[in-house]
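Thread amino acids onto this structure.
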């Protein structure tokens, strides 16, 4: 159940809505984020693996994540988060208020670049949700 919650948070970054993406869902993902895939030149399989919590420390993936965050309105061009937009995108009935506030306040810390900020946000969100799962 918590894994599905993590995927909801991934939606914020990657637009993925299911545990295992069907061919149709992969096509929707690739179509929706084609601009970000093209500009970042990230391998689409690497981008899709983020749905499984595999978040590689790779510059093209970081560029892709930043592009997605900007496209979804949760980060601006300077890399700053729009916390109200983050909160709205991660709202989910299975996400406790405490976890949501940790994600909004701790995971949105700005890093040296927008790309690094987006990457660290995704990792932090993932570990925050997985940590809640084990409590």
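Threaded sequence (135 positions):
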């Amino acid at each position: 159940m918590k894994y599905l919650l993590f995927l909801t948070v991934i939606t914020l970054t990657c637009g993925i809505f299911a545990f295992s993406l069907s061919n149709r869902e992969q096509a929707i993902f690739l179509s929706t984020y084609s601009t970000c895939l093209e500009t970042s030149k990230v391998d689409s399989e690497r981008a899709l693996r983020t749905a499984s919590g595999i978040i590689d420390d790779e510059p093209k993936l970081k560029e892709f994540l930043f592009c997605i965050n900007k496209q979804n309105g949760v980060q601006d061009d300077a890399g700053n988060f729009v916390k109200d937009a983050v909160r709205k995108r991660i709202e989910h009935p299975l996400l406790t208020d405490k976890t949501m506030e940790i994600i909004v306040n701790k995971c949105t810390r700005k890093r040296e670049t927008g790309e690094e900020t987006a990457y660290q946000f995704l990792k932090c969100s993932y570990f925050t949700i997985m940590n809640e799962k084990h409590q």
